[in-house]
Design brief:
The chain is an alpha/beta fold. It contains 9 helices and 9 strands. A 7-stranded parallel sheet has the order 6-5-4-3-7-8-9, with helices on both faces. The protein has a two-stranded antiparallel sheet with strand order 1-2. β7, α7 and β8 form a beta-alpha-beta unit. α3 packs parallel to α6. The chain is globular.
């Protein structure tokens, strides 16, 4: 058993690596600069967690830099497996075109299927067509109708971009990835992590079972509240989707203008009171 004095003696030797303090058996030979400049060493260091932090940071910087000047945008999700001859593909093309004509950029996952359809519609209509890809073992490249695209290694960085730059979410028929994005959007709106914006499901027949389950099981057992059901809507009409998004954008614009007027009035009042 090591005595207190022996332990104190053992820990007198220290090594500092930036803000990190190392003692005892944790001390490594060499310095950070030496390891950086020594090209003869192993390459495993690129897979360590500290290096991943820099990669993660770079993905946020890349995404923010790419999308910072994007016009008002709508994120659209849907299955990569939607065939071009499927009616949902045609609906995606129509949706992308309608959003572009209404002045919105479209943001998709940049893949094939429903994502390609929306990008295609927006691009062919002269709109801004954005694709945010993800590195997967079986993933495809960004589709040919993405005019502004970036690939991500990390899902959470990519998800941030979908939410930060969108004024609405439209959910086309899709699988687990689509469901993930839909429920994350609903959770962020429900918990007020983001300003409330429309979450619209396209395809009443496809989504009917899920909506019924949410109402008849999740709501019935008290896992969500009645107002939570109002966070999403379902339709088969592309024009209705665009109209709802436009109305929501106008409401938010009016609210922002009212808040700015109130702030300006408060500033003038405080200025007069101080005189």
């Amino acid at each position: 058993m090591t005595s207190g004095d022996d332990r104190t003696e053992q820990h007198r030797t220290e090594q500092h690596r930036g803000p990190v303090l190392l003692r005892g058996d944790q001390i490594k030979s060499g310095t950070t600069d030496q390891r950086l400049l020594d090209s003869r060493g192993p390459s495993d260091w690129v897979h360590t967690d500290p290096w991943r932090v820099l990669r993660i940071q770079s993905e946020f910087v890349e995404g923010f830099g790419l999308l910072a000047e994007l016009p008002a945008a709508v994120s659209v999700f849907g299955s990569a497996r939607t065939a071009r001859e499927h009616p949902d593909y045609a609906a995606g093309v129509s949706l992308g075109a309608a959003l572009a004509k209404a002045g919105f950029a479209v943001i998709t996952g940049g893949g094939p299927g429903a994502m390609e359809a929306v990008n295609r519609g927006a691009s062919e209509a002269g709109g801004v067509s954005v694709g945010l890809g993800i590195e997967l073992p079986f993933e495809q490249k960004l589709n040919d109708w993405v005019d502004l695209g970036v690939n991500f290694r990390y899902f959470f960085a990519r998800k941030t971009m979908f939410v930060k730059y969108a004024q609405a979410f439209v959910i086309m028929p899709g699988g687990f990835g689509t469901l993930d994005e839909m429920f994350e959007a609903l959770t962020l709106v429900q918990t007020h992590k983001v300003t409330r914006f429309p979450v619209i499901l396209y395809g009443t027949r496809y989504w009917r079972g899920l909506v019924d389950w949410i109402r008849d099981s999740v709501l019935a057992e008290g896992k969500v509240g009645e107002p939570d059901l109002e966070l999403l809507s379902v339709t088969d009409d592309v024009d209705e989707i665009v109209a709802r998004i436009v109305a929501s954008a106008e409401t938010r614009s009016d609210q922002a203008a009212a808040e700015n007027r109130a702030l300006a009035e408060g500033s003038r009042t405080n200025s007069h009171d101080g005189q």
